[in-house]
């Protein structure tokens, strides 16, 4: 039973120090979870957090990482993880400043200052939200010209900030009470703890962090920098008459999925692998054999349709089953005096902040949609409302799988407006941009909130750091987008193949005639995927607790449709290794395995950023 909780936030109490291995807050009820966090984890107001130097550090790092992700997205449709990289860079950069100019640099960064710098940089790094590399690139390919510069700048900031606001009502449920893994956020917390640990307790964490980072960086350098290592070693053999290599089965040399899989757990990653075996090993040969796709066709471009249906159905059904909880969270925004408030509630983002932000950002977004992109006001308003629903999906999927499905969610919007505004390709792309930017920002906020929650940060300050990062990212990345892509001729060539933009533009053109543009076989796959996802979601809720872990995760199964089978194998091997380590040494999962996994993620991210920057400059 939890101890009694004081009726006010203990601002004068000395800051506590949570155990360095704490990855979950213990407690059987929401009140017990909140009480433990407030008593044992929350660091109080005496620990510096959102300071000027943290914001400046985060802003500078964010400007670099958002530029790098823009370049990498245009070239190969990938984005490097920013949170862990930003934490390491902030800690290293400030350490160097203290050696060069100790008087100006001041005292060492506190863990919460590093957390704030990481939140600003992470928000800035994802300010593109995938929209510039996909939706805006598709706009240029389709229309032949850029939208006005002012419109794109306002669009990027407004939608990123709107996504941050949309995530606020979800924070208490997904992060505080359900404690979804948010693997990148958890790894960032483990990284920051290792960087700031002192004494003998710091040596194992730092050594495992360094070991993982060094191995991943070396492999990434040999593979991506020197070109001496293939990205995938394909498996020999065939399934259904098709080579396993053509179906995407192989062993990836990327160590990032191994690190992320170790943090996500065995059930999710095993479900992911099971889904990959079904969709790539059973369904793909039948799709090719039936003529639904030509032999040289891109199966992932087709499988994103059933994957989108599965993710959407599972997430919406889960929230429908938890409707009372979500309803209480939303009603709390309008209630002046909540019924029995917990002291932790006083630390959250106030409802009046959220309502004021929505009152400003929503009309501004509608105005830019109308004037800058030609979207009718009623349809723009519907897109904003739809984005909130899709943010629910993005946040839950990211929390459970550490992958934000912004592409599939953008396709949901494209399908919707393919019906509502047929033959209006521009409106189709602009409304998809609303979804992509808002959903990615919302999911990123909760990943950063997860980091701050485990470190005992003040939730409001993490929220403010995110908003600052949105402004920094928009100001940095939009001018760079115009510089790198001055006209249509810059896309589609060897320098910027822009695969995400090409796929988005193709879907917009297909859906210009409504859902009739989707093949009947594909529509049937959508229905079956939604039905399976609904069944698994209900099974998760209804089966006894002792057998629940044997029920495949519908989110993991759906995610298998969006990525190659080789990636699913990497995640599974990471989850399996962590499970074995937990069995052999129960404390390993919460200690060395976590920091090793964080090192694998950070090492590949840092080296990948360095390689892309060097290729851009030389």
Description of the molecule:
70% of the residues lie in helices and 2% in strands. The strands form two sheets. A two-stranded antiparallel sheet has the order 1-4. With 618 residues, it is mostly helical.
Quick tags:
24 helices, globular, two-stranded antiparallel ribbon, mainly alpha
Low-confidence stretches: 1-21, 332-338
Mean pLDDT: 80
**Arrangement of strands in the largest sheet:** 1-4
Structural class: mainly alpha
Instruction: State the total count of DSSP E strands.
Output: 4
Sum up the overall morphology in one term: globular
Terminal residue distance: 62 Å
Helices, by number, come to: 24
Radius of gyration, Cα only, in angstroms? 23 Å
Provide the helix percentage: 55-70%
Biggest pleated-sheet summary: 2 strands, antiparallel
Percentage beta strand: under 5%
Order of helices and strands: HHHHHHHHHEEEEHHHHHHHHHHHHHHH
- List the quaternary state of the chains: single chain
Secondary structure blueprint with pairings:
Elements (H helix, E strand, L loop, with lengths): L29 H12 L10 H25 L6 H18 L1 H4 L5 H15 L5 H13 L5 H29 L5 H14 L5 H24 L6 E3 L3 E2 L2 E2 L6 E3 L3 H9 L1 H25 L8 H23 L1 H9 L19 H23 L3 H25 L4 H15 L4 H31 L3 H26 L14 H12 L9 H23 L2 H4 L5 H6 L5 H20 L7 H26 L1
Q: Summary?
A:
With about 625 residues, this protein is an all-alpha fold.
């Amino acid at each position: 039973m939890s101890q009694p909780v004081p009726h006010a936030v203990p601002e004068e109490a000395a800051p506590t120090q949570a155990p360095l291995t704490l990855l979950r807050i213990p407690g059987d009820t929401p009140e017990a979870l909140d009480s433990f966090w407030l008593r044992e984890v929350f660091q109080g107001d005496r620990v510096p957090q959102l300071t000027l130097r943290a914001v400046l550090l985060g802003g500078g790092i964010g400007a670099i990482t958002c530029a790098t992700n823009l370049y990498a997205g245009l070239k190969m449709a990938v984005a490097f993880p920013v949170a862990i990289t930003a934490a390491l860079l902030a800690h290293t950069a400030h350490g160097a400043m203290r050696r060069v100019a100790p008087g100006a640099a001041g005292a060492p960064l506190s863990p919460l200052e590093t957390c704030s710098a990481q939140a600003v940089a992470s928000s800035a790094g994802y300010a593109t939200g995938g929209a510039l590399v996909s939706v805006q690139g598709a706009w240029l390919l389709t229309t032949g010209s850029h939208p006005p510069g002012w419109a794109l700048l306002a669009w990027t900031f407004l939608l990123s900030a709107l996504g941050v606001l949309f995530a606020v009502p979800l924070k208490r449920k997904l992060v505080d009470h359900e404690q979804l893994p948010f693997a990148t956020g958890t790894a960032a917390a483990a990284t920051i703890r290792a960087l700031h640990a002192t004494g003998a307790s710091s040596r194992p964490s730092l050594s495992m962090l360094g070991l993982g980072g060094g191995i991943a960086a070396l492999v990434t350098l040999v593979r991506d920098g020197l070109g001496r290592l293939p990205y995938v070693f394909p498996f020999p053999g065939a399934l259904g008459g098709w080579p396993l290599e053509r179906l995407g089965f192989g062993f990836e040399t990327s160590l990032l999925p191994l690190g992320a899989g170790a943090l996500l757990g065995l059930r999710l990653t095993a479900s992911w692998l099971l889904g990959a075996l079904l969709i790539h090993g059973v369904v793909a040969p039948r799709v090719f054999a039936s003529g639904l796709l030509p032999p040289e066709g891109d199966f992932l471009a087709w499988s994103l349709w059933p994957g989108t249906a599965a993710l959407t159905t599972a997430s919406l059904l889960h929230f429908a089953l938890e409707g009372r909880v979500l309803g209480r969270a939303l009603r709390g925004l309008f209630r002046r005096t909540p019924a029995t408030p917990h002291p932790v509630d006083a630390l959250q983002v106030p409802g009046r902040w959220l309502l004021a932000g929505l009152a400003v950002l929503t009309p501004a977004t509608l105005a830019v949609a109308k004037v800058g992109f030609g979207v009718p006001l009623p349809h723009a308003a519907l897109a904003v409302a739809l984005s909130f629903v899709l943010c629910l999906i993005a946040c839950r999927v990211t929390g459970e799988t550490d992958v934000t499905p912004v592409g599939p969610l953008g396709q949901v919007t494209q399908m919707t407006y393919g019906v509502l505004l047929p033959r209006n390709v521009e409106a189709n792309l602009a409304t998809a941009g609303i979804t992509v930017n808002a959903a990615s920002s919302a999911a990123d906020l909760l990943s950063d909130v997860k980091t701050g929650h485990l470190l005992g940060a003040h939730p409001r300050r993490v929220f403010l750091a995110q908003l600052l990062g949105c402004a920094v990212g928009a100001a940095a990345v939009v001018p760079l987008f115009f510089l790198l892509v001055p006209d249509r001729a810059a896309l589609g060539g060897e320098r910027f193949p822009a695969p995400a933009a090409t796929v988005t533009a193709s879907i917009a053109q297909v859906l210009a005639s409504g859902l009739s543009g989707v093949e009947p076989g594909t529509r049937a796959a959508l229905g079956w995927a939604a039905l399976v996802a609904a069944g698994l979601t209900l099974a998760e809720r209804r089966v006894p607790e002792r057998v629940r872990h044997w029920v495949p995760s519908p989110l993991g199964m759906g995610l298998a449709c969006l990525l190659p089978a080789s990636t699913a194998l990497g995640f599974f091997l990471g989850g399996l290794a962590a499970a074995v380590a937990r069995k052999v040494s129960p404390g390993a999962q919460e200690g060395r395995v976590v920091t090793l996994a964080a090192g694998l993620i950070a090492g590949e991210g840092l080296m990948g950023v360095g390689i892309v920057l060097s290729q851009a400059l030389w």
